[in-house]
Design a protein that fits this description.
Elements lengths: L5 H4 L4 E12 L5 E12 L3 E6 L5 H8 L7 E6 L2 E2 L5 H11 E5 L10 H12 L4 H14 L15 H13 L5 E5 L7 H18 L2 E5 L3 H5 L3 E6 L2 E6 L5
Parallel strand pairs: 3-8, 3-9, 6-7, 7-8
Antiparallel strand pairs: 1-2, 1-4, 4-5, 9-10
The chain binds adenosine-5'-triphosphate and magnesium ion.
Adenosine-5'-triphosphate (ATP) binds next to helix 2.
Length: about 240
């Protein structure tokens, strides 16, 4: 497939729009953790969010993922205003359009790699079980884990489990893949693999990647870095456009 250069990619429409997101926590006392965060992400863009521990990155990602609905401001994904929608609508939207990769992968240890990857596909109910299985195998192949499809998740190494978790996040072909420190517990070689997978999803499939990361190599390889401090965006960098 022909690669799209980055300037062409950014002329694509915004796939996600955050408008003046404000979030409070009330325990142990009222505390404004996000102070009016606004930004847009384009289709096919690989975005990193960085900032010191406690500045609000995971809180922001949790809102973007539609899991947290207790905030002020507006969240729009694929031209759909998600703010104010019911939990059922959000759950359906998430399963169809969003994929998640976290530092701890939360695979079901007693199930095989394949079964873990199939689960969101079965839940979506768009394809028959046989089709879901075929698609799941294809995603496992994409992350280099097809040979381990029938092994129990608990028998895989951390890096292998992480790749299975990525395959699982991809099974419904989400428009956006979100990660909270997706390389957080991986060694250098496995971090590079995860990075390469994300990079090719953005470049070759025009899928959008939004990752919170403490890994500066990872961030510097992405298209854009948003830097947060104390509940605000304080900077935007384009690491590759120098
Ligand atoms: N459920 C909660 N209740 C109250 N305060 C919270 C809650 N979750 C997070 N916080 C506080 O909100 C702030 C932002 O937390 P958040 O988890 O978003 O930080 P982060 O930028 O992801 O940090 P890290 O890099 O350490 O993961 C922190 O001060 C944290 O203590
Ligand atoms: Mg965090």
């Amino acid at each position: 497939m022909e690669k799209i250069n980055s300037s062409e990619r950014f002329e694509k429409p915004a796939v996600l729009k955050a408008e003046h997101l404000v979030k409070y926590f009330y325990e142990p006392e009222k505390f404004k953790v996000l102070k009016g965060v606004s930004f847009e992400v384009k289709q096919g863009e690989f975005l990193s969010i960085i900032g010191k521990s406690g500045c609000g990155k995971s809180t922001l990602l949790y809102i973007l993922s539609t899991m947290d609905t207790d905030y002020e401001g507006k969240l729009t994904i694929r031209d759909e205003l998600l703010t104010g929608k019911s939990q059922n609508e959000l759950s359906r939207f998430r399963n169809e359009h969003l994929g998640f990769v976290f530092q701890f992968h939360y695979l079901l240890p007693e199930f095989t790699a394949l079964k873990n990857v199939m689960m969101p596909g079965l839940k979506l109910g768009k394809y028959s079980a046989a089709e879901v299985e075929e698609r799941a195998m294809y995603k496992l192949k994409l992350v280099g884990m097809d040979a381990y499809a029938h092994k129990h998740a608990s028998r895989l190494s951390g890096g292998q489990q992480q790749r299975v978790a990525i395959a699982r996040a991809l099974v419904n072909d989400p428009a956006i893949i979100m990660g909270d420190e997706p390389t957080g517990n991986l060694d250098k070689a496995n971090s590079q693999r995860v990075f390469d997978i994300f990079r090719s999803l953005a470049e070759e499939n025009s899928q959008t990647i939004i990752t919170v990361t403490h890994d500066s190599d990872f961030a510097n390889g992405s298209d854009r870095i948003i830097e947060m401090e104390d509940g605000n965006i304080v900077g935007t960098h384009f690491p590759k456009s120098v």
